[in-house]
Amino acid sequence: MPLSRTEQIAIGSIAVGLVVLGLKALAWWLTGSVALMSDALESTVNVATAVAALIAIRVAARPADKDHPYGHHKAEFFSAVLEGVMIIVAALLIMREAWHGFQNPRVLDAPLGGLAINIVASVLNGIWCWVLITRGRLLKSPALVADGHHLLSDVITSVGVVVGVAAAVLTGWAVLDPALAAIVAVNILWSGWKVMASSLSGLMDEAVDEHALRDIRTIISDNAEGALEAHDLRTRHAGPKTFIDFHLVVDGRISVKEAHDICDRIEAALKRKLPDALISIHVEPEHKAKHSGVPVMGTA
């Protein structure tokens, strides 16, 4: 089976992560800098989480089965939570190395060459994080977006590391190197928490945002001619899928076919806006009306 676009990007993340890891490890080896070591350590996490993201994306793409009748879409959220945990672990390891650096500060070796290599790695990371975030949002992939935000934090901290190490070399203050590593660790901790928080909302069946909900209500209202009202609208998202269900009140005297045609019209309109939506509509007679929820155009 050919790879999907999402899977291709995830595989690209692994390749880019390995190249960046090699470059940053070389920069650390040349200089002995604790700050550059912390940057390389975060790249190790990048590779591990890129592998986890690819696995999650492949699992999420599996069709529904008897054990998972609603599909496997939430697998990507688990990947993003795992990524957040691994980011936090990396931050704690960097803090440990920074503490050792405070106790035994050292003069850096070959700083210019190491910094130049680190800058090349950061530029590559910056380009790829833009690809991940933009394509991940377009493909509605939480795993790719989470990976992109993680790389963005890596780019930001890499810039700080380069500036700080350069300052340590120019001033001769060797203690700046471990101090910068500690700052990097704090920033990574914050990044890990944000990734975990956003992913947990998906695991908790969080509704779509207000803008998307407003669009859904408008589409139902504009395409429910022949019905009386729609109420108890509920939504949730799971990776690229949006789940929508609501009750549609119709005149009890119309035929099942007529009611079904109204539902088909609403569903087709929603699918044009949200191609990956999974829609459930419960038809009810007029005495079930609540006179609230989504008004139907032309029935006021």
From TrEMBL:
It comes from the Bacteria. Residues 13-204 form the Cation efflux protein transmembrane domain. GO terms for molecular function: cadmium ion transmembrane transporter activity; ferrous iron transmembrane transporter activity; zinc efflux antiporter activity. The chain crosses the membrane at residues 9-31, 77-95, 115-134, 155-173. SUPFAM superfamilies: Cation efflux protein cytoplasmic domain-like, Cation efflux protein transmembrane domain-like. Belongs to the cation diffusion facilitator (CDF) transporter (TC 2.A.4) family. This is Protein p34. It is found in: Cell membrane. Keywords: Cell membrane, Membrane, Transmembrane, Transmembrane helix, Transport. Pfam families: Cation_efflux (PF01545), ZT_dimer (PF16916). Its main location: membrane. It is a multi-pass membrane protein. One of its GO terms (biological process) is intracellular zinc ion homeostasis. PANTHER family: MITOCHONDRIAL METAL TRANSPORTER 1-RELATED (PTHR43840:SF15). GO terms for cellular component: plasma membrane. Coiled coil: none annotated. Residues 209-286 form the Cation efflux protein cytoplasmic domain. InterPro entries: Cation_efflux (IPR002524), Cation_efflux_CTD (IPR027470), Cation_efflux_CTD_sf (IPR036837), Cation_efflux_TM (IPR058533), Cation_efflux_TMD_sf (IPR027469), CDF_Transporter (IPR050291).
